[in-house]
Structure to design on (122 residues):
């Protein structure tokens, strides 16, 4: 069983930055694919970024502004968010799965955090 705990959300003005963190329990973190998804009010869960086996994939809407990284020694994955826009406002979720192949589909992840709110004001 893997437990994920996100932190780092908050309120920021448009153009600002935030860094989200997701701390994972478990001894096999380094072999898991780790991803970030987000869900805005009234919308479905949307893929943001995933990191696996040295590779990364980003949604087009965040490419060039967001960076996913992981520290396997700390069992933590990060999402650095720069040049934030009001449309980035959402609850951000960390997700993990032992199948190491990267995926943008939420159905490919077995473990989820509780989410952290990010609000970008205009």
């Amino acid at each position: 069983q893997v437990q994920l705990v996100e932190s780092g959300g908050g309120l920021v003005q448009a153009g600002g930055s935030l860094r989200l963190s997701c701390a994972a329990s478990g001894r096999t973190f380094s072999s898991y694919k780790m991803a970030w998804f987000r869900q805005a009010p009234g919308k479905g869960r949307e893929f943001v970024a995933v990191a696996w086996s040295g590779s990364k994939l980003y949604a087009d809407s965040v490419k060039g502004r967001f960076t996913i990284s992981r520290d396997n020694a700390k069992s933590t994955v990060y999402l650095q968010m720069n040049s934030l826009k009001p449309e980035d406002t959402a609850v951000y979720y960390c997700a993990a799965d032992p199948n190491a192949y990267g995926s943008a589909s939420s159905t490919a992840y077995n473990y989820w955090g509780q989410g952290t709110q990010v609000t970008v004001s205009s």
In short: The CA atoms of residues 11 and 89 lie 9 Å apart. The mean pLDDT is 95.
